[in-house]
Amino acid sequence: xxxxxxxxxxWLDSPALSESExxxxxxxxxxxxxxxxxxxxxxxxxxxxxxxxxxxxxxHMNVHVIRHATQAFANVIxxxxxxxxxxxxxxxxxxxxxxxxxxxxxxxxxxxxxxxVRLFDALRPTPELSFAVRYYGTTAGLNIxxxxxxxxxxxYKVYWSDGAQLPPQHAAAIAxxxxxxxxxxxxxxxxxxxxxxxxxxxxxxxxTDAAYLERVLNQAIDREVVKKVADRxxxxxxxxxxxxxxxxxxxxxxxxxxxxxxxxxxxxxxGAFPTVExxxxxxxxxFYLAIDLAKKVGSDLIIGTDPDSDRIGVMxxxxxxxxxxxxxxxxxxxxxxxxxxxxxxxxxxxxxGAVKSIVTTEMAKVVAEQNGVHLEDTFTGFKFxxxxxxxxxxxxxxxxxxxxxxxxxxxxxxYVRDKDAVTASMMVAEMAAYYFDKGMNLKQAMESLYEKYxxxxxxxxxxxxxxxxxxxxxxxxxxxxRKEPPTEISGTEVLKIRDYSDGSITVPxxxxxxxxxxxxxxxxxxxxxxxxxxxxxxxxxxxxIKVYILSSGETAAECSEKIEKYTEFAxxxxx
Length: 575
Prior knowledge:
The protein is an alpha/beta fold. Helix content is about 40%, strand content about 20%.
């Protein structure tokens, strides 16, 4: 195995590099740390595919890494046989710089390997890619996107035939192929126009949109509540320069929303995201233009979708200003609304089920239990939720009505197997219209749910650790927490520790006492004596450790106090 200096020199000497790529690499010749950061190792291929900053180098996103990963992916499809190759792959991309270029490169590699390609003619929401896989019955799917990451990033998000992100065994197979293939001369490719003319690459677009939107609109539960307030209920929408710009407004209009005000500056497709530092709907500061427009038109609700339109953020009028609804809160609001709206309209299935991630608010369990809905936890990631839903379908046990996680992702319907901000935008609009008719906004609706189900509060901390040193630091923190687990956190006794990597449940004074219902993920879950939960896990897509604090109590103030107390402990983990 070459060291990073040898790998750097190999790239410099490769005729595969364009002149501009060579100049970029040559410009760092005297920067030892930058050379190391680019060439110390390949980007790791996991169930979320690849994600990294766009630079020339082994550890970054560029055409060479795209071709390399796609050849490995193609080998896995080819190994599945002629039928899998004929069913082929659907390929999509977002608004980011190079996304369209990377998508075409991937299409050419797949086509050169004899795999039929359905390539979207322009950027589309990630959930439509999941839909296309299921709708056309393809063997696999690929989306070139880095979701809500900053403009410097791009990614390679992979799907299998069920429309969900790649299962671990297929991710491992692709990773193994990447190790065996040379990055510069181990791949096949072809001329894009010739492949298009031959039919092995096929463009898809408006017909797929129409089929997808039909199914999205079928998820609406009670259109009459929208109709009742259509002339008064106003929504401001921003796609943050991304893929939601077309289908989200179209969906809302078809639902019956007539007072819709898109943010003009952010309806412009631009991978540089010129109006925001970060196109992440979790960050309220990104909504400043939407808030300005909302104040101007007197809007009741603001909806924002991230660049690949799989996650949604929401703000509501709060006095003279606007306040955000957290991902946890929006999920609870939707769960409660869907249950009651389906009952109201007689559309509730006989054995309803819901799914959430282990780091999502425990309030969802209370809502489900009190309404007779079965609820199960999975690991973070919609591939795990999709897997659980598929198990229910196969067993004929539960019919899922909703799945969500705290990071602003929501899934409904059997036509996608990933989070879907197009469908979620429609459901939020319907729900907000329902409460608007009752003289309430979503913040007030949330307060009513706290009164009904009890007080809960949550906080997520991102302990960012960039660079090589950061990766080592992250591993060190997780190793120390396992080797020397705390018996108390901020003065509160730890009752149980769930280690989801090996599935062990430990009581500090007794040792291992049981096993978790799922295992195989790098997550530590501390159950505390005051009913709170403190959860630590490294991010699968970014250089950071995420800490989740889930609290409950008699009052909102009590919940906030607990969160404040545990926040200090969380922040000290990084020191």
